[in-house]
Every structure is written in C-alpha cells, then in structure tokens.
Amino acid sequence: MEQKWACQSCGHPYNKLQVEGTLVGIVQRRSLSYQLQDLKCSTCSQIKAENMGDFCQNCTGKWVCKESKQAFLDSMQVFQNIAKYHKMEWLKEVVEWVAKN
Known about the structure:
Elements: H1 16-35, E1 39-41, E2 63-65, H2 69-85, H3 89-100
Antiparallel strand pairs: 1-2
Helix pairs in contact: 1-2, 1-3, 2-3
C-alpha cells in the first residue's frame, strides 16, 4: 500500500520524487562536508592551520577529524531508515554508496 504524501493544511499532494531528490542532495552535501572537514588537535582542540605539520604546534597533540566517522555513519543511518520506510530506492542507493566509501 502506497503512502499518500499530502500537505496537512491544504491537502495538495507532494511530489515524492522531488522530496527524494531533496534528501539525496542533503546526503551528498553532508558527505562533502564530512570529507572537507577541518582537523583539530586531540589534546587542545586547536584547528589545524598549516598543511605540513604532523603534530599540533601548541601541545604536540595528534590531529584528528572534527567529526568522527561513527557520527557521520550514524547520520547516514537516519537517511537509510527514511529510504527503507518510504521505499525511496534512489536515496537508498546513494546512502549505501556514501556509507561504503
């Protein structure tokens, strides 16, 4: 049974493909944001400014990603759940590909 997507105020139906496309765009931007994130010092949390240093100049701490891989994968799981529940195959494929790579 197909779920009806309609505005609660006026009853006008939503375009499910357009909603799915918007969600795919959000996943793609979220993936790009994760890939381009800053590095921070694991000890003092200073953001890495130079490209060559292996360790923080302030405290010699190790550089780590601002957002953990697990936090990113958890956010992708939310989109995966939406895709499965609403039978959005395009979204499901994009989320699976992003989470796998």
